[in-house]
Amino acid sequence: MKLKHPPKQRTNLVGQFVSYEVKDGYKVKRMNLLTGDGLQSVKLTKEARACLFRLTAETPLTPGTLLSLAVEQKHDDGAVKYKVYDLQILAAAAESTQIELPSSSSSASRSKKTKIRVCDRGTCRKRGSQKIYQQLKQAVSDRNLGDQVTLEKTGCLKECKRGPNMAIGKTCHSRLCPSAAIDLLPSQIKG
């Protein structure tokens, strides 16, 4: 007897663009989006990548740009996963900083800390991960973000050839320098 999987639901997701996740150095596969429920990693379909290319042909997306995404929502092992089919730019980065994002659990998302892990092993350490960790620690301290961010050194993030590596939530960022790592702090907590 086959187990029935919950049906996939089509819905809209609104949030601020944070960054792209690139595969093989050039393929945009996923996008990180800051929503009312926290940082989300959404998968881009071929249709969504084509739409993104058309929208950003003249002006690339900058962190903080408000987007509306047509997504398919899937529940997998208790986690919600999103697959993007279409997207629209609602407001440029400068305009979107004043917009309140919709949230089904706004009080829960405010109390939830963003977890940032910096690899402190092998190749990452040789390539300067300690300096990245120190700079992030200083930025968190300077901006009084201790109640919003958990920063920790961690073991291998399995991207050794692309180090130094840092993970924000479940998203790994590679080939970082201190300033690039600080720029990856979600715009909600930049202070």
UniProtKB/TrEMBL annotation:
InterPro entries registered for this protein in UniProt: Thioredoxin-like_sf
Pfam families in alphabetical order: 2Fe-2S_thioredx
Matching CDD domains: TRX_Fd_family
Protein name: (2Fe-2S) ferredoxin domain-containing protein
Species assigned in the record: Romeriopsis navalis LEGE 11480
